[in-house]
């Protein structure tokens, strides 16, 4: 005899979901989740994936010009890793019902965002090192807590990604160390790159907590574990001693150790600049979007051909069967 | 947990093997005797290494240009992979040249401080790819040819070339298969993709004959170099198979002549080569005293 269990009510499902979150257990693809959680999660993962993909462009700009074959290999491997990160993340979003084409469409139509940092230009080879050190470094600070995200596939993707980001950060720092012990011109290139990337790196953590409307819900769902300002402070505290070891000056006269707080104090961030960059007015927003759109559109005939070939193969198999 | 603090993870011992050749730095030639075998002319051996090394370096450069422009993310990864493998082969071969000619010059000297006429790559390697069909046509042709050459080089009298070839054969087999699959998809796919693939092979084919012309350097290195003329049959068989699966025909176009009797192997290149090198060498030449 078969006993059919009555389908659990929405309220019961909701209670089960809240319970899973409260016990710090992972939500898995087949679990019921509230629609708002699903949407928020898909958007968060998609925007993260977009950042990986758009993030290939600033550094990709220097691959063909890398000044030694070893640096060229490292940089190419790094940019390739970012494509891989984009791929895992789009796959993680797909487990929640996201669709890759749809997400790409939302990126190139500007309906979904990517990290504001990639809207700054890379103007010398030192930028490759500074991006590794500061941008991958800030990304690690942001992403390490995501390894404990409540959504299982995202958390697991983040563990793998964070490991690779730590390689990226090391290679960047190592390049800067080498350049700082090189010629005077090389040292100037490094300092100039630090001057240009320091503040945008701090902006990578997002708006200040009192102006971050989504933080509370994301913290409650354990999609997010620390506030923007907490992560930003952590990044500053970690980076200042590294800058000293490197011999560069961070472009902030207010930067000073505060023994009372046990943290570095730092100057005011230009939030208007962040708003401008996020809303499309950064130095490279147009170029980044245009490149992505063009690659996608130029590839349309290739993707169509692959699909047509697969259909024909299928038909041939059926005829043969 | 190490990941509670991002920077603890950085201090962990890492599996450097994950990185591309030479980025962590494990010498793939460790344990291989690098003295030039007796009876072999070191200068000729160096020239031969530059021929094979430049093919890889220059084709890798053209693949690097595809970065962030591929039709799909999977191809972004695959093209970068092929570019990295070829770059790895180039580095080994250029480094070998500096040992063989006794100059002790490193890979970067050859890549960044030679003039255009000193590059010894075949002209097809420097060909620009106007679209994805040209990319896969060039990669199919060059890797099929190179794979056949490398298979022979595995028994080269120069143990270094033999070791490089041994490593390269697996890589090139993957490159060739990747390109072959795309040629088939595009040839068989839609009317548009078929026409684009036909045009791509028409564009590439005039530079194919050059690949099989035996050069004096190769003639002077019996047992060390592989004679490219010998691999033509094998190449034709593979191409015939792929083209037929792709519903394409072998292009009927004339071979491109050389210039004053010289072609890529003699340092006579196409007009595109100067721009390629201007880009490749720009930073290194602007800072000749720098270390990177
Ligand atoms: Fe990444
Ligand atoms: Fe990264």
TrEMBL record, chain A:
One Pfam family linked to the record: PaaA_PaaC
Protein name as it appears in the record: 1,2-phenylacetyl-CoA epoxidase subunit PaaA
SUPFAM superfamilies assigned to the protein according to its UniProt record, in alphabetical order: Ferritin-like
Top-rank taxon: Bacteria
Species name: Prauserella salsuginis
InterPro entries linked: Aromatic_CoA_ox/epox (IPR052703), Ferritin-like (IPR012347), Ferritin-like_SF (IPR009078), PaaA (IPR011881), PaaA_PaaC (IPR007814)
Gene (name only): paaA
Automatic annotation (TrEMBL), chain B:
Entry annotated with the keyword Ion transport: no
Pfam families registered for this protein in UniProt: PaaA_PaaC
Record flagged with keyword Oxidoreductase: yes
Entries under InterPro entries matching the protein: Aromatic_CoA_ox/epox (IPR052703), Ferritin-like (IPR012347), Ferritin-like_SF (IPR009078), PaaA_PaaC (IPR007814), PaaC (IPR011882)
Gene3D superfamilies (alphabetical): 1.20.1260.10
SUPFAM superfamilies per record: Ferritin-like
GO molecular function: phenylacetyl-CoA 1,2-epoxidase activity
Main EC class the enzyme belongs to: oxidoreductase
Entry EC number(s): 1.14.13.149
Keywords: Oxidoreductase
Signal peptide bounds: none
NCBIfam families: PA_CoA_Oxy3
Protein name, as recorded: 1,2-phenylacetyl-CoA epoxidase subunit PaaC
Species this chain originates from: Prauserella salsuginis
């Amino acid at each position: 005899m078969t006993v059919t269990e009555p389908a659990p009510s929405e309220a019961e499902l909701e209670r089960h979901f809240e319970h899973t979150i409260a016990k710090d257990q992972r939500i898995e693809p087949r679990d019921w989740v509230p629609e708002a959680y699903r949407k928020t999660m898909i958007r968060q993962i998609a925007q993260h994936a977009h950042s990986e993909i758009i993030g290939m462009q600033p550094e990709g700009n220097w691959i063909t010009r890398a000044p030694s074959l070893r640096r060229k290999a490292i940089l190419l491997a790094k940019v390739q890793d970012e494509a891989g990160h984009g791929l895992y993340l789009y796959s993680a979003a797909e487990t929640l019902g996201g669709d890759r084409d749809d997400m790409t469409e939302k990126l190139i139509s500007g309906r979904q965002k990517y990290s504001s940092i990639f809207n700054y230009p890379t103007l010398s080879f030192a930028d490759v090192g500074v991006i590794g050190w500061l941008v991958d470094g800030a990304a690690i600070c942001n992403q390490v807590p995501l390894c404990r995200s409540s959504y299982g596939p995202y958390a697991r993707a983040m563990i793998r990604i964070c490991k690779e980001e730590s390689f990226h950060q090391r290679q960047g720092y190592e390049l800067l160390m080498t350049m700082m012990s090189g010629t005077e011109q090389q040292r100037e290139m490094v300092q100039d790159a630090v001057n240009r990337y320091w503040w945008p790196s701090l902006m990578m953590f997002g708006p200040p907590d009192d102006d971050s409307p989504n933080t509370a819900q994301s913290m409650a769902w354990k999609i997010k574990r620390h506030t923007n300002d907490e992560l930003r402070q952590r990044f500053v505290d970690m980076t200042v001693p590294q800058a000293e070891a490197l011999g560069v000056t961070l472009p902030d006269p207010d930067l000073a150790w505060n023994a009372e707080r046990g943290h570095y104090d730092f100057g005011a961030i230009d939030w208007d600049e962040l708003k401008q960059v996020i809303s499309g007015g950064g130095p490279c927003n147009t170029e980044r979007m245009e490149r992505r759109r063009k690659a996608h559109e130029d590839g349309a005939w290739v993707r169509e051909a692959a699909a047509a070939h697969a259909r024909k193969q299928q038909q041939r198999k059926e005829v043969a069967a | 947990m190490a990941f509670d603090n991002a920077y603890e993870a950085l201090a962990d011992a890492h599996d450097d093997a994950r990185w591309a050749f030479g980025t962590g730095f494990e010498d793939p030639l460790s344990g291989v005797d690098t003295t030039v075998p007796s009876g072999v002319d070191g200068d000729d051996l160096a020239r031969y290494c530059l021929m094979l090394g430049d093919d890889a370096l220059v084709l890798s450069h053209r693949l690097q240009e595809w970065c962030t422009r591929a039709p799909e993310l999977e191809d972004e990864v695959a093209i970068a992979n092929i570019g990295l493998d070829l770059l790895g082969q180039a580095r080994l071969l250029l480094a070998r040249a500096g040992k063989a000619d006794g100059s002790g010059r490193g890979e970067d000297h050859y890549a960044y401080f030679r003039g255009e006429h000193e590059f010894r790559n075949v002209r097809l390697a420097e060909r620009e790819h106007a679209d994805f069909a040209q990319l896969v046509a060039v990669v199919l042709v060059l890797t099929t040819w190179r794979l056949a050459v490398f298979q022979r080089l595995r028994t080269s009298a120069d143990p270094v070339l033999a070791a490089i070839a041994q490593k390269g054969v697996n890589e090139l087999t993957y490159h060739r298969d990747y390109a072959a699959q795309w040629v088939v998809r595009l040839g068989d796919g839609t009317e548009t993709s078929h026409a684009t693939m036909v045009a791509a092979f028409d564009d590439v084919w005039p530079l194919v004959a050059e690949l099989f012309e035996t050069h004096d350097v190769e003639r002077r290195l019996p047992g060390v170099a592989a004679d490219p003329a010998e691999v033509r049959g094998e190449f034709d068989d593979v191409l015939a198979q792929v083209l037929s699966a792709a519903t394409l025909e072998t292009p009927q176009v004339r071979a491109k002549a050389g210039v004053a009797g010289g072609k890529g192997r003699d340092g006579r290149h196409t007009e595109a080569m100067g721009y390629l090198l201007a880009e490749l060498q720009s930073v290194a030449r602007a800072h000749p005293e720098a270390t990177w």
